[in-house]
Design brief:
single chain; alpha+beta; Trna Endonuclease, Chain: A, domain 1; four-stranded mixed sheet; three-stranded antiparallel sheet; 19% strand
Amino acid sequence: MKIRSYRCPKCGREYNFADGNKTRLCRICGCELDSLTVYSTDGESAEKDQTSATRRENREAEEQEALFVWAEYQSAAHPELKLLYHIPNEGKRSVAYGAALRRQGMKKGVPDLCLPVARGKYHGLYIEMKAGRNKPTVDQQWWLEALERQGYRAVWCSGWERAKEEISEYLNIKEKLYVYPKRR
């Protein structure tokens, strides 16, 4: 199988797709994408494993990009969505750069997305994005549970549609108001 990397000639965004005959369009401006690079999964098993991991990261990145496109469109109805951001905690790095990032506070397992908007009993929403059948790692599960204990809504979502549903549900949570008893 081959993975093709594409770039939008208008806005410069990059996308990765499995090889196929379909026309690829930019999710932002609708332009036809220019082909950049072809990554092959043929070869040695170590090369296959690396390509498989890269492919998985690319699928998760595409799911996340789709979610941010949806959030941009929905920000007219829910301006709070403009506060949604990605926590760049993944990716391959050199040993020295990884060590420097850890000294600066990067931690394993921190969720991918944060919506710092209080709703109901929650201080904000954290989402760990997954693609396909992937599940959270032990470190990611620990973070989700720890954030829940601190008063945040913390979930993992398989695919951008599930994340969209989770965010929509979260933003529609009504504030809990204390009702004082009537005096007699």
